[in-house]
């Protein structure tokens, strides 16, 4: 089954309007007065692979302006038949593991092999100011200049687990623009990894040498999310220890539930500085894709991604509706004061909110 067909099946749970869309001539959008977005132009630009138009389309989707949000969904609906034709790879790792260095080396190699690579880097936002680091383009300077690559830092904006709620839609736009490898980088090992696991096909965990010490502080659940473990910075004097770490992980992984049915999670020693092991990572990704497609689990995982997306958006919408009501906000503040003054228990206050 080709990827366009997979996408049509997977996205059917998100938009009924998507069905049969590929055979229907594209709608002509009316441009509202004072609108800075021409949807026809954006759609053509995205399909042609223009990074400028892709950036504008993502900005439209990320906007909190109600008109922009509506038009962004119209744009996405038109582009849906062009989506799904990629492999989506999540990349995480402990602080200092060198995720950005690995992504730049890995992404550059992929472009040299003829692939188009999109990097969606999940950035932490300040809980006080809402500001974002957005430093990925400075950390991946070579890849950022590569015409076959596209880097988009996405601020988390307080989303649970540090994953921007529009990351999934951004992936679809990148696929519509012809990017056949999507790399989603997370901020580090934590709750965000579980959410990213639910939106990608394959999940890579970057670790450092010295597996015994590192495992003391790493949750078993994180290890069970990984389809591959990249023992990074395996170069120079560190190479012997990296090889030892690979052996330790091989022994340990036998006792863990594999992240993907039919696939055995494996560790690889990689040096992004020297480039050793990077091609082996891509060979493993291709082997993974072939095996999962042959087993039929590829389609199942894509459907699970869509279901997870659907339910997470229901949660976002419920929270938005609840806290978006001005009268409800006042009620919450009053109940908070009564809780803090020991007039009510938390359960009693919640019961009053939902009476």
TrEMBL record:
SUPFAM superfamilies: P-loop containing nucleoside triphosphate hydrolases (SSF52540). GO terms for molecular function: hydrolase activity. InterPro entries: GTPase_ArgK (IPR005129), P-loop_NTPase (IPR027417). Pfam families: MeaB. Its EC number is 3.6.5.-. Belongs to the SIMIBI class G3E GTPase family. ArgK/MeaB subfamily. This is Methylmalonyl Co-A mutase-associated GTPase MeaB. It comes from Planococcus dechangensis. The lineage of its organism: Bacteria, Bacillati, Bacillota, Bacilli, Bacillales.
